Q: What sequence folds into this?
């Protein structure tokens, strides 16, 4: 059950404050929550208001994964493609008019889910990958009141959508902590929550939970990611 909800905060940055020259504008450093060891880095590069690339690097600076995002449809539902050399995974999520299609391949696990149309619930807002950041920004006022907001999230490794919920759970010294978990109270007994921390400029500064990066054995990593902007 825990592997159903795989979120990243490579996942959680939207195409705002874009860099014209495509140099890294946001850096994320992912640490093991128990040992404190640096596991990998994320470099977020913005080529335009709708084009966003994430380079994942080892602690030694070697690129092992890449993600391309396209926010042409909206900042909450980007199309994206991703490859991970560690786990041998390839993910491709694209819009075909009003239909969302996906493809997932894992060489390590010998899984191939061919191109298919992903069933989407039209009753709740849809969030895809890094669209989390846009969703939080759009709903900031409601979240500040403590409201629990439900949305549909695409699980790209399974090509399905699941209902999740987000709520403000702590506020201190211009830091705002949000917790994301399953909509179902019963499912929450089995699914690991995601904790996000934003600053007063509504920028993500910390992610704590399961990453979208799987290691050489195919296991998704539990991480604490600290983000900072690059001037």
A:
């Amino acid at each position: 059950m825990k592997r159903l909800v795989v979120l990243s905060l490579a996942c959680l940055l939207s195409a705002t404050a874009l860099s014209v020259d495509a140099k890294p504008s946001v850096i994320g450093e992912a640490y093991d929550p128990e040992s404190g060891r640096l596991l990998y880095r994320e470099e977020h590069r913005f080529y335009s208001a709708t084009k966003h690339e994430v380079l994942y690097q080892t602690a030694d600076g070697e690129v092992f994964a890449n993600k391309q995002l396209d926010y042409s449809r909206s900042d909450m539902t980007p199309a994206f493609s991703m490859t991970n050399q560690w786990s041998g995974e390839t993910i491709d999520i694209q819009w075909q008019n009003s239909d969302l299609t996906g493809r997932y391949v894992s060489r390590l696990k010998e899984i191939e889910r061919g191109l298919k149309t992903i069933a989407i619930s039209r009753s709740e807002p849809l969030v895809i990958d890094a669209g989390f950041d846009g969703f939080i920004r759009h709903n900031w006022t409601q979240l500040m009141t403590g409201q629990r907001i439900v949305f549909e999230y695409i699980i790209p490794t399974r090509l399905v959508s699941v209902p999740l919920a987000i709520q403000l759970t702590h506020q201190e010294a211009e830091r705002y902590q949000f917790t994301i978990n399953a909509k179902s109270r019963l499912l929450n007994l089995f699914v690991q929550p995601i904790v996000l921390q934003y600053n007063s400029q509504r920028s993500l500064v910390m992610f704590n939970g399961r990453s979208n990066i799987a290691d050489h054995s195919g296991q998704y990593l539990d991480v604490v990611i600290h983000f900072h902007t690059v001037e």
